[in-house]
Amino acid sequence: MQIHWPLVISTVCQRVGLGLFICAFVGQVYAGSPVPLSVMAWITLALLAVGGIASVFHLQRPQRFFNAFSNLKSHLTQEALITPFLGVALLVCALNGTLFDLGVATAFVGAVTAILAGAFLVCTGLAYQMGSRPAWNTPFVLVLFLLTALEAGAIGVAVLWLAAAGLVPTMFVVIALVSTVVCVIVQAAYVVRMRSVGYGVNVDVMEEPYRGPFVTWLAAGAVVPVVCLALVFVVPSAAVALAAVAWAASAVGIAAWTVLFFKGARKVKMFPMYPVDLNLDM
Amino acid sequence: MAEKHYGMVIDLDKCTGCQACAVACKMENNVDLGVFWERVYRMGPIGTYPDALEMFYFPNQCMHCENPSCISVCPTKATYQTDDGVVLVDANLCFGCQYCIWACPYEARTLNPNTKTVEKCILCVHRLEKGEQPMCAYTCTTGCRVAGDLNDPDSRVSQILKDNEDRAYRVHPEFGNKPSVVYLLPRKGAETLCRSIGR
Questions:
Q1: What is the CATH number that goes with domain B6-65+123-197?
Q2: Which domain holds residue A42?
Q3: Is the pLDDT of residue A150 over 50?
Q4: Helices A239-263 and A140-165: angle between axes, nearest 10 degrees
């Protein structure tokens, strides 16, 4: 399948941004946070804005964007319906403490925003699960959307806490490390599954054109974040820099993974038993 | 009597791959350059001449599925189904997200780079409504295509299907789309395909 770069940018921004907000909210509830939730909300809004603009470039007729609210069964419509509510909720969280003070309602608004963020990620994940693309015809797709968001979010929170207060609860770095390892394992399982999806469209990631993004993901999305997060315990004096590198590498890894995700999503062949390839790869 | 359900039967034994249908489709529907609503592929040759040689032609177009995945994924409802079962695209609603192109398992849809909307076969519904055959079927040099009301047991298309039940084949039935375009498998020259689907 062709790589749709606007969608790569858009989905990476969504996962990094929404994952950050969800993890920050959970972190604040359970551990208190040196970084106000409003800061996290601004970062998330900025990332969503970049993603939103990118996704508009994917549309051939963006001026008809408002038609997207028509089919409730479509996961794209569901995404579109959640977007304004999520945007407003994030904006309220971002302005809380500066323009107004929500007081005791802060936690409630944060929870609603986190739920909307999660729902948005679920809709996006489900949108890519489709039978016509054997590589995508699996619950792995949704699980990986959520896991990558969790991974990037947990690392991001660790970075911002370290930068703000110089320390972060050990448990949070452990969660970031464990979520990264789990994510890598599930991604590896997805890669293994791609080798035998059938319909004449099996994907071996060690062959071109998959090798490049796979190796990039392996380095940036797996090795660097895991090593850097592990080193946080060994070299605490460099914790901020190490966590920041892990966060940046994680984002690059998600991007590389998404490129591989698109390239591997070849459409079923009409007759896989014949050497003629009807797959026009659109 | 049940509502009309338009469909088509294509006899792969008769198709010679002349591409007349593809040309006729373009002329009838003013299909832009680079856009195809109808294609004919050559499957094979594979095997060894003369006994094990396999080759046949496969005309491909929108299958006008009973349960089309393109409709359920379309966020704008640009893709819709008529009461007669024909799947159409409203070009005034489509915003070119191409989600339907991804979701269709039959490679039936194309993004028109000029109109920036998605297009596909309309089963020449304007002709069917007048009792005429779609242009591809009308033009077919071998008469391998016949369209009509699949719900009418007396229609020609239903009769052909009834007489050739053993050869009738809907592509990728496992997806549950229930295509309304039914292929009649070649009697000879597609042994590998027939074996793989248990025929």
A1: 3.30.70.20
A2: 5-263
A3: yes
A4: 160
